[in-house]
Design goal:
Helices cover 80% and strands 0% of the residues. By secondary structure, the chain is mainly alpha-helical.
Length: 296
């Protein structure tokens, strides 16, 4: 592997984490206009359209086997689980809480990668897992940034972390056989109809229709950000990192997301930062430093 490839393996998921930091602020604001699962469907549907267009333009034609499609459908199911739990959890908490609590993703990914793809669980990784776990517990114990933390929201966000860890680890073999772009595309395409069914159910329960949803420019811009940047671009770059480095390394960069999300939540939404929240966030950052120094 060349130096350029190693750098790309770091910069691609790092850029994704930064984009996702802004995603929590945008999605939290968007829930006032569009219910969370329905917003998640629009996000994935737009992302799927963009990715399919890019694959058709740039990628050589490949024909996935039936077994490959089962793999892509499995990834699509994990995407669906991630979107639903992530958006519902964020709707029940704050943007900053949502972005920070999903930092459990690196922990889940490191452990899952050790079992599924035999990535070594080194002393540094075990130390990082411990720091990240304590950091997450402190954030929960602090009650979040505004003194309240919904247990259902916490559970949903931690579920999103586990689901995305599965998407990361089980996607790596398909990335190796196809490409980051194709794998992200096919997984997104298979997730769209699953989310469509769930979104229809959500609107039915709320007594709303698609036509009742607002279409003002600000809402459309938020949906576009979530669909094109936070999905099409971000999911491709996430898998692009897996072309060059292991799943554990990619997942550790995820911690940049809550740092960006917390800063934007405080700056744009007026969310307050509590002392234990800062301590927990510091421990999470320390976990990344431990793993990063060990790898270097």
């Amino acid at each position: 592997m060349t130096r350029t490839e190693r750098i790309l393996g770091i910069l691609a998921p790092l850029t994704t984490a930064i984009i996702w930091g802004g995603m929590y602020v945008v999605s939290k604001w968007g829930f006032d206009a569009i219910p969370p699962v329905t917003l998640g469907f629009f996000r994935v549907a737009l992302g799927a359209v963009a990715l399919v267009a890019i694959v058709g333009y740039n990628e050589s034609t490949r024909t996935p086997t039936r077994a490959d499609w089962r793999g892509f459908t499995g990834l699509g199911a994990l995407v669906t689980a991630t979107i639903v739990t992530q958006f519902v959890g964020t709707d029940l908490t704050t943007a900053s809480q949502g972005s920070l609590l999903t930092v459990a993703t690196p922990v889940a990914t490191l452990l899952l990668a050790a079992v599924v793809v035999d990535e070594p669980l080194t002393r540094a990784k075990v130390t990082a897992v411990g720091l990240a776990t304590v950091g997450t517990v402190l954030v929960v114990a602090d009650g979040g940034l505004d003194g309240s933390l919904d247990p259902a929201g916490v559970t949903a966000l931690l579920g999103a972390s586990v689901a995305w860890a599965g998407y990361t680890v089980w996607g790596k073999p398909l990335v190796a056989r196809f490409s980051a772009l194709e794998t992200a595309t096919y997984a997104t395409v298979t997730a769209a109809p699953m989310l469509a069914v769930l979104a229809a159910g959500e609107l039915w329960l709320l007594g709303r229709s698609v036509w009742s949803l607002p279409t003002d420019p600000a809402v459309l811009a938020a949906v576009a950000y979530l669909g094109f940047l936070a999905t099409a671009v971000a999911w491709y770059l996430w898998y692009k990192g897996l072309e060059y480095v292991d799943a554990g390394t990619v997942s550790v960069l995820f911690v940049v997301q809550p740092l960006v999300g917390t800063a934007l939540g405080a700056a744009l939404l007026g969310e307050q930062i509590g002392p234990w929240f800062l301590v927990g966030g510091t421990l999470l950052l320390a976990a990344v430093v431990v793993v990063g120094r060990a790898r270097s």
